[in-house]
Q: What sequence folds into this?
């Protein structure tokens, strides 16, 4: 899973059929390191693949909870980068590929995309992808995915806002999207992303202060005030 580059930022290809591993976690961390240390305009992912669909299918090596913890923390780091994050997804997409797709700011999907949670012996994998699906879809639409592993097609994902655009050439579309988001890097993006995250659980009264602070910051910047 080498880190390559588009013009303006690094890109990582992730195979969702692979289990969580130290190598995979390191690859995503390296992507974050490169994006932050080189002043990139964005960080991008190409994701595809899913674990076996049959709960009885053999898995060569499963991670322990320590490996899963490191993985989830690294995915969260990618989700909170201070620059735009982009993902192009195609085909079956589950497991680690779905984990990462659900954290990207801009998501492009091929028409053949099918999103699904990974299965273990006793049901769907209870990782943070299930949490993000409920957050982003609402409990009703996410319920059958989380409880029973029902897949979601590309059209359903688009209609429900899990992906932003369908494209027969998602990589080319991702390049075009990367050009559009270059000016959005930095703390202002991080602030707005956090405001959007917080709006899912904060009351209006609790959210008002952070939103007013962000408005004050934007007004000062518009008026050329730096402090």
A:
């Amino acid at each position: 899973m080498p880190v390559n580059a588009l013009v303006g930022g690094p890109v990582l290809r992730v195979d969702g059929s692979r289990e969580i591993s130290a190598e995979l976690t390191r690859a995503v961390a390296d992507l974050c390191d490169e994006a932050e240390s080189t002043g990139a305009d964005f960080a991008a992912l190409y994701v595809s693949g899913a674990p076996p669909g049959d709960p009885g299918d053999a898995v060569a090596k499963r991670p322990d909870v320590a490996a899963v913890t490191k993985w989830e923390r690294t995915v969260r780091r990618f989700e909170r980068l201070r620059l735009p994050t982009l993902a192009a997804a195609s085909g079956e997409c589950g497991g680690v590929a779905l984990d990462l797709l659900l954290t990207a700011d801009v998501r492009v999907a091929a028409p053949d995309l099918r999103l699904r949670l990974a299965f273990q012996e006793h049901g769907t994998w209870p990782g943070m992808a299930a949490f993000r699906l409920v957050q982003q879809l609402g409990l009703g639409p996410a319920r059958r995915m989380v409880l029973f592993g029902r897949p979601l097609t590309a059209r359903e994902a688009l209609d429900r806002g899990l992906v932003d655009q369908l494209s027969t050439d998602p990589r080319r579309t991702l390049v075009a999207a990367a050009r559009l988001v270059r000016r959005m890097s930095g703390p202002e993006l991080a602030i707005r992303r956090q405001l959007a995250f917080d709006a899912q659980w904060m009351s209006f009264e609790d959210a008002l202060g952070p939103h007013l602070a962000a408005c004050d910051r934007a007004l000062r910047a518009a008026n050329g005030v730096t402090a």
Summary: The chain is about 45% helix and 20% strand. The two ends are 43 Å apart (CA to CA). The mean pLDDT is 89.
